[in-house]
Design brief:
two-stranded antiparallel sheet; 281 residues; 10-stranded mixed sheet; alpha/beta
Length: 281
């Protein structure tokens, strides 16, 4: 009888261990509260949350997501191809041996947003007007050389990568405060920056709030050919009466080398669920 009771207790403990492992949390490093990654996480949790216990870890974008992965504070992270390539040049921990793609997701388009078709360069700024200088037409990516380009979150890395690999020569102005999109738009309105560079799947929430007073700057397929990890595409926003060519980076859910069999099992379930529902996400 005692032996039978012991066997029953051992079996119960074993089953409890399996149940606990099956309910392991999967921490996903996303982005800011108004960004594409956060919204995509919310959508994934709606369709896969009953199969996998997903926990969001907010971040400032792709750079921080990679840091969260390599420092093992996240199991999975949203990352773009350009961010992977650029960060791997600076951080040896970001490499193909230690990080793997869980599943490819969608393209994230580069949005270059300006006000007005021209920009005064040089001269004497008197506040109400500028004496001397020259007028610069801003209609394409190459016109951004020397101009002040504002960006925030993961878009800062994209702008840096474009400068390095495309030799654009933008004067990057990072916005790292609370509500950086609001601050960047205010700076653009005041003429403190010339262009905003924002990256995300269209329709991008920030871009949807803009009026025809703002416009999109084109990135041609010829320009994109200089940066092989981007693909040419188009963005369309009826609120700005705009449709232009641009470039996009592929986004992925990336994971790291994980030894836990329970976590690996949960990641397999998550991958299958996303793959099954990707067209609806």
């Amino acid at each position: 009888m005692k032996i039978q009771k012991l066997i029953s207790v051992v079996a119960a403990v074993a089953m409890l261990g399996v149940s606990t492992a099956a309910q392991a949390d999967i921490t996903v490093s996303t982005g800011g509260p108004t960004g594409t990654y956060h919204q995509f996480f919310v959508d994934i949790k709606k369709v896969c949350g009953d199969k996998v216990n997903l926990v969001e870890l907010p971040s400032k974008g792709g750079d921080e997501n990679l840091t969260n992965l390599v420092e093992k504070t996240a199991h999975v992270a949203f990352v773009q191809t350009d961010t992977l390539k650029f960060v791997s040049m600076k951080d040896p921990r970001v490499n193909e041996a230690d990080l793997q793609t869980l599943i490819p997701l969608y393209n994230e388009e580069v949005h270059l947003i300006a006000k007005g078709a021209t920009k005064s360069s040089g001269g004497l700024n008197l506040g109400f007007t500028t004496l001397g200088g020259k007028t610069v037409v801003v209609s394409k990516l190459e016109d951004l050389k020397g101009l002040k380009v504002g960006a925030w979150g993961g878009s800062i890395t994209t702008a840096s990568a474009m400068n390095v690999f495309g030799n654009i020569g933008m004067n990057l102005i990072p916005f790292t405060m609370e509500k950086p999109d609001v601050a960047a738009r205010a700076a653009l309105d005041k003429g403190e920056i010339d262009v905003i560079l924002a990256v995300g799947g269209q329709p991008l929430g920030f871009a949807k709030t803009l009026t025809p007073a703002y416009r999109l700057i084109e990135i041609s397929s010829a320009s994109s050919s200089k940066m092989s990890f981007y693909v040419p595409t188009r963005i369309n926003y009826t609120n700005m009466n705009a449709s232009v060519g641009t470039i996009a980076a592929q986004s992925y859910l990336v994971t790291r080398n994980i030894r836990s069999a329970a976590i690996k099992a949960e990641l397999s379930i998550l991958k299958a669920c996303i793959a099954e529902n990707l067209d609806d996400l």
